[in-house]
Structure formats: structure tokens, C-alpha cells
Amino acid sequence: MKNKIINLLADNIEELQVSDIEKLIEIPPKPELGDFAFPCFSLAKVMRKAPNMIAEDIANKIGKPDYINEVKIQGAYLNFFVNKEMFVKEVIEVASDDNYGSLDIGAGKNICIDYSSPNVAKNFHVGHLRTTIIGNSLYKIFSKMGYNVTRINHLGDWGTQFGKLIVAYKRWGNKEDIEKDGVLALMNIYVKFHEEAEKDDSLNDEAREWFAKMEQGNEEALEIWQWFKDISLKEYMRIYDLLGMGFDSFNGESFYRDKTENVVNLLNEKNLLVESEGAKIVPLDDYDMAPCLILKKDGSSIYATRDLAAILYRHDTYNFDKCVYVTGQEQKLHFAQVFKVIELMGYDYFDKLVHVPYGLVSLGGAKLATRSGNIIFAEDILHQSIDKVKEIINEKNPDISDKDETAKIIGVGAIIFNDLFNQRIKDVAFNWDKILNFDGETGPYVQYTYARAASVLRKAGIDHVEGDIDYSLITDDETMNLLKDISRFKEVIIDAADKLEPFVITRYAVSVAQSFNRFYHENRINVEDENLKMARIKVVEITKRVIKDALELIGIGVVEEM
Question: What is the DSSP letter of 216?
Fold first, then answer.
């Protein structure tokens, strides 16, 4: 119905393309203002007329097709009142398809998404949750659009920090403690190193020497490094399992250590590499950026070198149409430098490289920092959320089946939803009262709405309505508003992908849940009139599926009862 109105307008407005009208058309905030509205402000300058006069001209041209009951002019707006029965029929028939929301926009196209990527031997804290949650949602969104998506966990498993850890281990660590306490023990000696290095700078020189040994293939250095990596991966996999997430590649920085020489050779061949105080750099003064450091004084590579090697490898391996990096906004300059170097090297796919930044995570206003030891472990937060949900279940519905699994799905979902509720660039703060609120704009609220829909279908003894529906029985305002929300699903997915913003899906899930609850409160489902009952149950059925699919796109599961 919306597309029909868009095409109708496009046929009668020479100055605008279909894509322009798609962006302008909107759903009015109140039913009395119509079902769809088209603002004429943007045409005023082109047509050299007042917007209200333009609206009148367009209204006279388009007439009144059978799918439109009325067209009203309200100031600069053309308000369309659609044939409600036709609209309801169209939405329900389209949304009844099991693949509703799936698109083929990305068919035959490849996307790489680099996310999570924790630093080995450092605990997975709530800051790492942000990149993991955002990246996982983008993976699901692009997959829904038909893209072939490769999920890359570019582990931070190489660099001077491992020289620091080896020094710390040899001076203050012991094997038994590290085997017993894992990453926590490694974190303790890492913090200890920085405390001591502030008093004795020679420790930093010693750390650089150990990392140089790693790069040169020293057996002892690599053996200790691999041990640290194995301990870390075991912990990370436990967290990914809890989140219900997976990856296609765990090729981290170490994977590219034998590929950095090729990067250096290519930069030399293209006359881009310059010596500066013993180090090798690519100057970027002409682009208002600091130089991109490629080799340190001792000849060691740096993460920029390895990121360049990774880009070349990924393009050769995956032939990507887009390569997305989900990292904190503090790495904005780093990726701007790396992408610019790729451009200067003459690779035409430089514009397919995209940095997706996000804000900080805090608890009580304190920024999380590894070196100072001021950290909040992701696993602790997730389990704390699960435990709090379990307390609520024991209080409100202790007889629920599979209590532990239900608490896990709701508890983990609450954390994910809280993270994705706002634009990713905004900072995220933990507030348990808000996160676990079953009445606010939260994960538990949307999951509860799904469970309510599931309960309606269980009580009716119907999973799927078969046969003809009398659409004329469900044209009331609450049903219409709900179906308008449901009809937006595909465009919401496209919008989220275009903006690389999962919060678009999150807000949509809340909107559908709110519309459904208004529909539920105003329309009794189990009525004597069988035709009316089946029509309303059909609305419940498609709403239940759309809520589930929307939550799936942000990495959240559902429960059948709460």
C-alpha cells in the first residue's frame, strides 16, 4: 500500500525520484491525520510555490484510486487515508510468509565484519561486550539482507604487551597460579608491570627485547606466548557460548606476522615509506593526519602494519564488497590512517573499508581501563543479570518451566538490549533497575510481549490460522497502528544496514511491542464471534513472529512463557 502511494506520487511529481519520495513519506502520529503523509516543503524551492499550494496541485493530479479512501490537505502535507480493508489484507498476507523481512539486496555480495577482537591475556570486560554485541547484530542484519557475511575475530594476540607479560611472568608470576586463575592471574601481573615500570623504565626496554625475540621466532618466547593465548581463548569461548555467538575466523594479529614483510616491500616499491628517527613511516601531512608508523626503531612491526596485511589478505581471500571494523571511537584516527595508506598504495577498494565506532561503557561513571585494574568483567555482569532475573522469576512466577534457561535468555538479552537501545556512538551506563524493567523500553518488556502473544495462541489452541480471514472486522485504530508497524519491517532492516546502526531494530522492536499491547488491551481475542476471533488471532500470530525475528536481529532470544 505504501509503495502504491509512493509510485502514485512519483508519477505525478516530475521533480522527485521514487527514492526521494521513499525518504520523505511518513506515518502520521495520530490516526485522524491519515495513514500516510507526504510533506511538500522540499518542493517549494524547485517549484517556486508555497508548500500548501503544491500540496493542492498534487492532490488534484493524483485523484482517488481504489486503494485510497480520501486525500486531505493539512498545511504543507498531503494526508492519505487508505482503504483499510485492502491495507489489512495486504499486510497480513505479506507478513504471513515465513521469510517476511528477508531480502535479496546482498545476493552475491561479500561482507567482512571485524568485531569483538579482545586482547589475549587480558580479561574480557564489559567494554569488549560493546564491539561483540554491535558486530553480531550487524552480522545478522546483513545476513537477513542476503549478504554472505564473514565474522572475523581479529584477536589482539601480538605486540609489545606480550613482551611486558613475559617480563612480568618471569619476575612476579608462577605457573601454578596462572593455571589455576587463568586470565585473572595474567591481568594481575600485567597491572603489576605497569606499576613497577613507572618506577623503573628499563622494564619497558626489557619488554621490547622480549617482543623482538617473539618476532625473531625465539622458542622460549613463543612457547610462553602460546600458553597465554590458550588460557585466554578458553575463557573467551565460554563467554561467546553464553552470548550465543560464533565466528568464522579467529585469525588475529599473530596470523599476519609473516605477511608484514610483504606490506613493507610494497610500500617501498611505491615510494611511500620514509625513515624518521630510525623508524619507518608513511607521511600523511597532506591529509591533516599524523604519520602512519609501519616499523619501529628495532624493526618490529606495529598493529598498523598488521592491519594493512590483514586488509590485503581479506580482499584476496574473501573478495569483500565491504569490510567493516567495529571498534571504539578512540581508534578513529588509526583506521583513517590505515585506510588512507591503502588508498595511497593504489588499491581501488579503499572506499569499501568502513570503521564503525562506538562509545564507552561505564558503571557508576568510571571509565573502564585495563592498566589501572579498574575493570568490570563481562562474564560477571552477564551472570549477575541472569541471577537478578532468576530472583524476579522466583518472586513472580516460581512454577515456570525451565527456569534456568529462561533466566539466561532474559538476563543476557537485557544486557544486549541495553547496549543497543541508543545510537552506538553514545556511551552506555549500567543501571539494573532500568535494564531489568519489565514495563519500560527494555529487553524484558519486548520478550514479555512475545510471551504474551505466545500465551494467547496457546490458550486458543492455535499455532497457525488457516483459511479465509474477514479483514473488514479488524480495521480499528489499534489494529491498523500495529499493522502499520509490522509493515515497516523490511524498510527498518534496510535503514539499520545503511546506517550501520542496530539501535534502529531495537527501537522498532519496542514500537511493535507497544502497538501490540495497545491492540491487546483494546481488543478481546477469545470472543464468541468465530470470524472475529480468527482475524484477531491472525494478527497475534504475525506479531509474534515479527517480534521474534526483530529480537533475533539484535542477538536476543525469546521465551514462550514468563
Answer: T
> What strands, in cross-sheet order, belong to the sheet with 36-39?
36-39, 77-82, 68-74
> Using 50, 70 and 90 to split pLDDT, how confident is the model at 371?
very low
The region that residue 341 occupies, defined by phi over 0 for left and psi between -120 and 50 for alpha, beta otherwise, is alpha
Contact 310, 323 (CB under 8 A): no
**CATH code of the region 110-367:** 3.40.50.620
Percentage helix, strand, coil for the chain under 3-state DSSP, each rounded to 5? 60, 10, 30
pLDDT number for residue 525: 94
Round to whole Å and give the CA distance between 115 and 127: 12
Q: Give me 162's grid cell.
A: 606480550
Distance CA 543, CA 488 (A): 12
How far is residue 148's CA from residue 334's CA, in Å, rounded to a whole number?
27
Phi, psi of 145 (to 5 degrees): -90, 5
Q: Is 38 helix (H, G, I), strand (E, B) or coil?
A: strand
pLDDT 10s digits, 240-270: 999 999 999 999 999 998 999 999 999 999 9
38-69 pLDDT, tens digit per residue, is 999 989 988 999 999 999 999 999 988 999 99
- Is the domain 378-553 a CATH 1.10.3720.10 member? no
Tell me the whole-structure pTM to 2 decimals.
Answer: 0.91
- Cell numbers describing residue 109: 555480495
**Residue that is written with C-alpha cell 509503495 in the block:** 3
**Length of the chain in terms of residues written:** 562
Smallest Cα–Cα separation from 127: which of 140, 114, 118? 118
Q: Which CATH class is domain 2-82?
A: alpha beta
Q: Specify the pairing of strand 322-328 against strand 110-114.
A: parallel
Ordered by start, the domain boundaries in the chain are 2-82, 110-367, 378-553
Q: Please determine whether the domains at 2-82 and 378-553 fall in the same fold group of CATH.
A: no
> Cα(160)–Cα(425) distance, rounded to whole angstroms?
29
Residue whose grid cell is 537477513: 144
Facing residues of 482 across strands?
Answer: none
Read off the C-alpha cell for 297. Answer: 626503531
Q: Residues with Cβ < 8 Å from 240, sequence gap 6 or more?
A: 116, 132, 246, 247
